[in-house]
Amino acid sequence: MEPTPFAERVLDLVERIPPGLVMTYGDIAEYLGEGGPRQVGRVMSHWGGGVPWWRVVRASGLPVQGHEAECLVMWRDEGTPLRGQRADMRQARWDGTTL
């Protein structure tokens, strides 16, 4: 199944998240001005394997459920600011415009 136009926009944005930074599912929907966190999550679950999926987190900063260990390795490699086992959202959140 081919990605929808919305999915293509989500994936394009995820590819642009700089190393060491993250966006929430809701941040992505808000930035795009369409969909919501669940729709972004659906896109990521179907087509997100080819983009830096570990840079997309839940609102709490927690990594993708079921991929926590791999996500933490990627975050540490990229220097993502952490608070324990989650991204430090005050320091790591990307607004889609800076950098």
UniProtKB/TrEMBL annotation:
UniProt cross-references to SUPFAM superfamilies, sorted A to Z: Methylated DNA-protein cysteine methyltransferase, C-terminal domain
Could you state a single Gene Ontology molecular function term? catalytic activity
Gene Ontology BP annotations: DNA repair
What the entry lists under InterPro entries is as follows: ATL_DNA_repair, MethylDNA_cys_MeTrfase_DNA-bd, MethylDNA_cys_MeTrfase_DNAb, WH-like_DNA-bd_sf
Q: Which Pfam families match?
A: DNA_binding_1
Q: Which CDD domains match?
A: ATase
Report the Gene3D superfamilies cross-referenced here: Winged helix-like DNA-binding domain superfamily/Winged helix DNA-binding domain (1.10.10.10)
Give UniProt keywords alphabetically: DNA damage
Every Methylated-DNA-[protein]-cysteine S-methyltransferase DNA binding domain range? 5-62
Q: Where are the transmembrane segments?
A: none
Q: What is this protein called?
A: Methylated-DNA-[protein]-cysteine S-methyltransferase DNA binding domain-containing protein
Q: Look up and give the organism this protein is from.
A: Sinosporangium siamense
